[in-house]
Amino acid sequence: MAKGPGICFVCLLSLTTLISSPVLQAQTNDNPAVLPLMPQLQQLIEQQRYQQALQLAQQHLDQAEGDPDFDFYYGLSAAQSGLFHEALFVFERLSNHYPDVVRYRLELARCYYFLSQLDNAEREFRLVLSSQPPASVRTTIDAFLDRIAEQRLTYRSHWNTSLSYGAGYDSNINSSTDLNEIDILLAGAERKVRLNKDQTASGSGFYKLNASTLYRRPVSKRSGFDLHLSGQRKANARNDDYDLNAIYADGGMQLIRGRHQWRLGAAYQHYWLDDKTLQLTPALNLSWKYLTRADLQFSSKLEIREQDNKLNDDLDATQAEINSGFEYASAVFAGQAGIMLASDSAPNSPLAKNSLGINLSGQYLLSQHASAYALGQWRQMMFQHSDHDNVLVNGKKRRETLLQAVLGASRQLTNELSLYGQLTYMTNQSNIDIYQYDRNLIECGLTLVF
User: Fold this and answer.
1) Which residues pair with 364 in a beta bridge?
2) Highest CATH level, class, for 5-151
3) What is the DSSP letter of 200?
4) What is the CATH number of domain 158-449?
5) Spatial separation of the C-alpha atoms in residues 392 and 358, rounded to whole Å
6) pTM to 2 decimals?
7) What are the pLDDT digits (tens) for 277-295?
């Protein structure tokens, strides 16, 4: 790769604050083959005579390679000469041997960037940020991260695909109460009614298949098109009545202007229950993100959906939902927090509702190949009308609170294959007994990414 304006940009990193900072460099080995070379290499690099420094280093590789100071000057001169593949090998080795030396990791990130390995570059830059480097270095890294965000839209079209297979146990496949009998109002008198087995909680083992693909196509430097397709099948061992299949599609146009990112999209969901169509939901959405700094952004999304339920007309509704929150990402932790408001427009439907919710999620990097994650969701649902035709609700207007928590971990086995396991707990509290339930799921499986 030839030298160009980008190389001048990163000279801020290579030749200023960090070059003389002892806390960011490894100790020099007392290698007799290396000591006479160091003043020469340092002088050539300070004079920006990178190719001469590279030639000198290459002549002494057999004797000096492996010394951290020599390797640093060798890798730096290769990078500044545009030989980023050669420099990458050097700085990967240095970062592995000296993981706490920020300077090595910074040069590694720079190599990844110029080799168009944007995900790896972003990861390494964020690791450097987490070490609280000087303000001038943070400013330069922020500029790199801004460029990475822009360049993700400027490269050629590409696909990302994942497949997963999991199995586990679901304590309540039909999301039903564990009560055996409830009180209902008949002819003005309250009576107890025993529920049949289809109206109470039923547990079962299950297997689950997931497939997901993301396609990105640039239109210009600051705009692009994306398409997300996914599908899922959850099959229960006990019976087929509550087997659930789903497909999801979401496509849209993105536009970046400074720190603002806009996206206008359309989505479609299709659910099958026991291989029979359950629900169709087309939607339109508009989202906005604002990057306040390299590790923090605010976001908001408005979506209008048309829900068509094939088994219960009372669930047909036009739905409006807005989500707002923030996203944070550092080298070892990424988290999201947000609130949601939703409302159904379905005149006279006893199942139309207004909803308020809170969403929380986080992922923590335990090691280079392992991570743990957690998700939390709280929903307050207030139904708009009383259901006088349903004797089970006694003419009440429903109010429900749903709480869901997920804890999980994943371990990367190869570059493409990982193992995961997770626990899920759900509880739905209602002012009407029959709609109260608890649900527990345990699941583990494999995910393939390519």
Assistant:
1) 333, 372
2) mainly alpha
3) B
4) 2.40.160.40
5) 30
6) 0.68
7) 999 999 999 999 998 876 7
